[in-house]
């Protein structure tokens, strides 16, 4: 399986595109897993404001990144938490080549995946799993979150389970809380921690072979 772990929406960044074009092809069908939203989206009307195909702010940004690889809008599908059934969401997933997990709140995304009955569908997925921020973390068997504006405490959380060999520290900018988070994971889990700089790093796991793009550091326990 191919897993692409990103920092942000900038799929067409110069330091990414030459590599990602080997994986993302114009004929690919993409299912956007838009389940990581917070309290700003409370109903279908709120969801449509961000993701409708005409003037949704989030959708425009997603379309821009994917279109850089020649992917047509007709080949982009979005899982809608408020209107999709388990069966309709499953159909979008199994008929796609790329599952694109969005940023936001990874624990909320996981809970909604479970609630919608999609966890085993994603576990059995045979396509490319791609995501940024929360959408990168959820691809791991277990991920950690350090205290920030969304989470008051450090914690470990369950992911889908595509990757079990390392942990991922996202949005690294050299803060003390991030450095402490890295030290804690190394001490408590004794696995490699890959650290991607804020909007400047990415990780590709290609059938277990790890490729590092941009500004990424690997930390291991001494």
Give structural notes.
- There is one protein chain.
- This protein is α/β, with parallel strands linked by helices.
- It is built from eight helices and ten strands.
- The protein has helices at residues 14-20, 44-51, 57-67, 86-94, 106-115, 119-123, 134-137, 176-189, and strands at 2-6, 30-33, 76-79, 98-101, 128-132, 142-145, 155-158, 166-172, 192-206, 209-219.
- The strands form two sheets. Strands 1, 2, 3, 4, 5, 8, 9 and 10 form an eight-stranded mixed beta sheet that branches. A two-stranded antiparallel sheet has the order 6-7.
- The chain starts with a strand and ends with a strand.
Helix percent band: 25-40%
What is the terminal-to-terminal distance? 30 Å
Gyration radius (Cα, Å) is: 17 Å
The major pleated sheet works out as: 8 strands, mixed
Low-pLDDT residue intervals, each spanning 5 or more residues: none
Counted beta strands? 10
Approximately how much beta-strand content do the residues carry?
25-35%
Per DSSP, the total helix count is 8
Mean pLDDT: 96
The structural class is alpha/beta
Keywords:
222 residues; alpha/beta; 8-stranded mixed β-sheet; 8 helices; 31% helix
List the helices and strands and how they pair.
Blueprint: E1 2-6, H1 14-20, E2 30-33, H2 44-51, H3 57-67, E3 76-79, H4 86-94, E4 98-101, H5 106-115, H6 119-123, E5 128-132, H7 134-137, E6 142-145, E7 155-158, E8 166-172, H8 176-189, E9 192-206, E10 209-219
Parallel strand pairs: 1-5, 2-3, 2-4, 4-5, 8-9
Antiparallel strand pairs: 1-9, 6-7, 9-10
